[in-house]
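Provenance and format

Records in this collection were gathered into a single text stream. Each protein contributes a sequence line and a token line. The two records reproduced below are adjacent in the stream.
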Amino acid sequence: MSPKFFILACCLLALAPAYGADELACGTSIERQLSADRLLPAAGDEKPGTIVLEAGRMEAQLGDNAAASMSGGVLLRADDKLAGAESARFDPEMKALFLEGGVTYEDPGTQILSDSAEFSYTSGRIRFEGAEFSLGSNAGRGASELLEISQDGTLQLGGVQYTTCPPGSEDWLLRGKSIKLDTKSGVGTAKGIKLQFMGVPILYAPYLSFPISDARKSGLLTPEVGSSARSGNEIRMPYYWNIAPNYDATFTPRLLTDRGLQLGAEFRYLKPRHNGELNADYLSNDSILDRSRHQVRFNHRTLFNNGWRNRIDLRRVSDSQYYEDLGGSLSISSITHLNSSIRFDYYGEHYSLFGQLQEYQTIDDAIAPVDEPYRRVPQLLARASWPVKKLRVGLDGEIVNFDRDVGVTGWRVNAAPSIELPITRPGWFVTPAVSLDYTRYQLSNVQAGASTEATRTVPISSLDTGFVLERNFGNANRVQTLEPRVLYVNIPFRDQDDLPVFDTITPDINLVQLYRKNRFLGIDRIGDTEQLSVGVTSRILDVGSGRELMSATIGQTRYFGDRNVTLPGDSISTRQRSDYIAQLTFLLWRNVNFDVGHQWGTGESGTTKSEARLQYRPAGNKILNLAYRFRRGSLEQGDLSWSWPVRTRWNFVGRYNFSFRDQEALEQFFGIEYESCCWGLRLVSRRHISTRDGTRDSSVGLQLVLKGMTSVGTAADKLLERGILGYSADLR
């Protein structure tokens, strides 16, 4: 056989690339496929690139006018590529190989079926006419009047239609005059594109550019539409700009029918040692309020060569109602302060350093200026700890300037040296410790006659000890632990009524606070106490997997005297015991998880705080969440959320968050999901409190998901993922 023939065969089997990357969700491959063992034996020890040819009948003419013809079934294989036809003909003048009759091509990611094919060894082009194709790995299939694969791997299709629906179903269909897929650049271009759903055109584009690989590509993103009672109907049309491999930007015009046109932009950058993003939104004229509105967010992270780190977080809005009107969620609209800070920190083996400039923008008009948080300009922190023989010597220090437009301001300097003697043995530990807390203030804007300087020195002693006991049970497949812990703290009384309160609060007691030495959070107050905190934890562990099947903790603090140090407006505490704190996490069955936290007092004080959550999840798409939250004097809420199949293709989703205290729903949404083999639909109706004064907003979201292609409509998937614990928007 002529060597030219084998060159042509190599063109056929070595050029075509594989396309697609998504998991196959349903059978969509073309009906006719080659089988590697239909005519050819399995690949043996051939060298890579070896061509194996099989034909029922072959005729060849050698010499200067070499030609060859094959019939009775032709099959070629090279590595993992296969090609076949009923007959083949080599034309020496055209320097091409022609395949005719049931032409089939296969590689790991592509299947092509056509009436005829032409393979030119001079240009390296492979040309199929009247082709059907299947991108097996991404579940896509289609047909093309003309399909060409060039030597550089470029795929050109003319008169093409494409879908991920199985054969015999064209629920959605993409049609185009021409499509070009450049595998080297990872870019696809299309002309005369029309997207149809259930035979109805829903999108048309004269020209479209899109990525065909994981590489980023500039172009229009899927538009989002929605509506709300506060702002009317809206549509977002994002445009993505791939500036460089480590730079990109997204521009998002957002049309709100009741308010106007909002322009949004996001810029991201990534360098070996720093990264960040800048976000800005601008509404030139809010038709409802008759003024411009905006927000700006900037985040930056740097890791220096010497181990130092830098973090910049800046956030500003034009007005206090910005998030209520334009935020879109209760969690965002309930924000009262926006933090802006510039930080530097360093963590070494025995010490750490931290410095920052920090301020807040208060966006809740109900907060008086005297209650607004202080600016820290600057704040410097240092923490050190060194082993000295069997001891551990530590030093915590802080220098900070608190500034505010109203009220007392000034500098605070704090130093707290400490010495510990940690004794650790298998199954138990004991740690006695002593420290001395020194604080000095230099104040401004004090009341007439008040001192501008103040100091405080408080010694602190403590003894922390605990045990870890274990036993096997359940045929040695389970391990149960018993972990008691006791903390003794002694802090003498020091009068601190003349000290300001810059950043100190009294936190709610919890399992973390139970073992803290200072009952205040912040160092403007060091609480006097002689107390004993006792707690015990028990766990049940699966030996094979290490999975924690159960964890239960209970603890309480006993006080041996009154606590006289208070914050302004608080009274002296005379209670001899704290509330009990209990927490239980339990895997009831394989598919049921139960968590509960409870705090209750002695005598007639009753329950102070309680939280409970039950999740039943027998399957990935079957989720039922039930939660309860109680804070005495402030809130009592129930929360029910679910995602549950009602039929084979239908899924019922929803959430109902109810306040028993206010006797009203805080947020509720109900929706239905439909999923076929190649597309999905989400319809969600939502009503929620959108402002701090209780104003409600209503919206309806509709999202159409075309598997393997895109989604059209409202981003309902984000709402469901946020509101339903465990929900995943990935369609199966």
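Adjacent record:
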Amino acid sequence: MKKESGIQDPELSIAIDIGGTFTDVVIADRDGTLFEIAKTPSTPLTPSDGFIDAVKQVMDLVSAKEKSIEVVLHGSTVVTNAILEGKLSKTALITTKGFRHVLEIGRAEIPREENLYGWIKPQRPVSPRDIFEVTERIKYDGSVVKDLEFASLENIIKIIGKESYSAVAISLLHSYANPIHEIKIKQEIEKSLPNVEVSISSEVLPIFREYERAMATVINAAVQPIVGNYVRQLENKLEDIKIKSPLYIMKSNGGIFPPEEASRFGAYMALSGPAAGMSGAAFIGELSGHKNLITIDMGGTSADIALVLDGKLQVSTEARINKQPLALPIIDIHTIGAGGGSIASVADNGAILVGPESAGANPGPASYNKGGVFPTVTDANLVLGRIPPHLLGGSVKLDVEAASNSIEEFVAKPLGTNIVEASLGIIKIVNETMHGALKLMSVERGLDPSDFVLAAFGGAGPVHGGDLMRLLSVNSLIIPRYPGILCANGLLATDLKYDFMITKLQRSDSFNFKLMDEAFNELNNKANKRLALDNIVPKKRKIVRLADFRYSGQGTELSVSFPLGKVNQQTTNVAINNFHKLHKQLYTFSDPEAPVELVNLRVQAFGLLEHIAPPIIKVTKERKPKSEKSRLAVIDQEIFEEVKVFDRDELCHGHVIYGPAIIDQLDSTTILLRKQKLRVDQFGNLLIKECLNDQ
């Protein structure tokens, strides 16, 4: 792949993130002389149109030539939306005879929100009628008990072709230990049905637990045709406008991968968009000298919350998407229905409800005048003067009267109160919702929020960041320079990243270090082969080793770091001690004397790329920035007052602002509360702390 080499030294990089409301785009060069942003309305029905519109707009903005574009980076919600909306490709599952009901049986867990008074099974991505059994059997150690019976397979292939399935998932018992039968079935299907996409569990998720492995493989197969078609559309449209540079797509694990990998492993894009934002937040934390962050990305439809510990994003294999487990490596993100477009209403008991239903991009909040009639968080902020009556530099005008009328009809009148109090109620409820989610990701994991800095971004994050900082009792708040496009910006601070894993069940009293060492070497070899395909030279490669441990008898495990080098008693003890520490942090106890079980070995492979930061801004000797503007707003005294308004583009490194104040910019608005102090750093980030006085 010759094109990949261009990513090592790009002339101009374009990063595009497609959100539910807006598509964000950045164009930049590596030395910081050029860094421009833009936002365009998203096109949910045809996401590729929004993608190419964003590329054209940002290129026109800087008069860039097609040949000057060296790399295009993309974060997408295509897979997320397909899973959440249930718009998946018609998929068949082939499994071992006797295991047809693997998905229906699942785990002994009850989704409580839907099962207060009875048992309601979550709907599976494939129904039992779409599941076929093939005669074969492999043991847990990889030995073949019964050879694959081709006669049963031939009949299945005929049915798949007749029923016009678009994709096939193959998940056989113990295929993680020996994939030979899955590979043979895949070959036979591809030979007979070349237009059918095939996913095998030994490639998608080669670890034990048949339910999670089968589910991941089914989801991957079901999105494969969707992702493949989407990627082809992107590449064709880039080709149409004469851009021949390589395209890279964001993965849920915080890295990027090329289109051909995305087409094969679309499930790895399940949280592509949010992952880009979290990568951007981690990079901003690094630039500002903060290694421990609680991040919140509040956009138009939802808020995504994640942790950065010691400069590293936390990756989990216990994600759930639309109530289905997806045991792939995914940045540990907690998503709630709290965004600018979250709809407010009044319950029968007189309580204000905000979200999870959202007005989205179309029709949008009432103030958009696009057909939306229900009040939203954006409408409440507008009525209170917290955001200006226009967005995106005036290209999107907001109707204050329409917002007021909507809040009065659907919130104020039912409560018997006025519009201001109703709007404040909406803001307080959404803040408390986000506060609860922030506590879930910190306090309930044994972490003290006071040890962290809060990073608030997304179009709506900075509006609510000051309130959340105070509610959570963190010491500092960071508002990135471009908070509304940080997901796109984060794409410029990512690396190529691949995950490799293998199950090796062992107890601590009988560890086979030679076997563990061989397994890690096998994973390392796979990692280096993959990075070599991307033209990543050895000095630009980074290998991280992990191991999944549990106490003997436990049903779940924890993933911890495993030292590099030869596997022996010493290196293994380091990893086990890491497990004890993490277990105590999460569950308040550990038992160093209890036997420990090794479940999986993992390798994370990074192709290290040049990260592009926003350019350093102008330094000023003047402590106070000039403000000739103000507007009536309700900040933190529940009454309208004249509040100073600053243009963020005019702020310089060293400027200090005391609240109450409002900082407006193209992609967001920052609210500075009374007794809060703001300082501008060299990269244009806003660093906010509580202070004892107003000046």
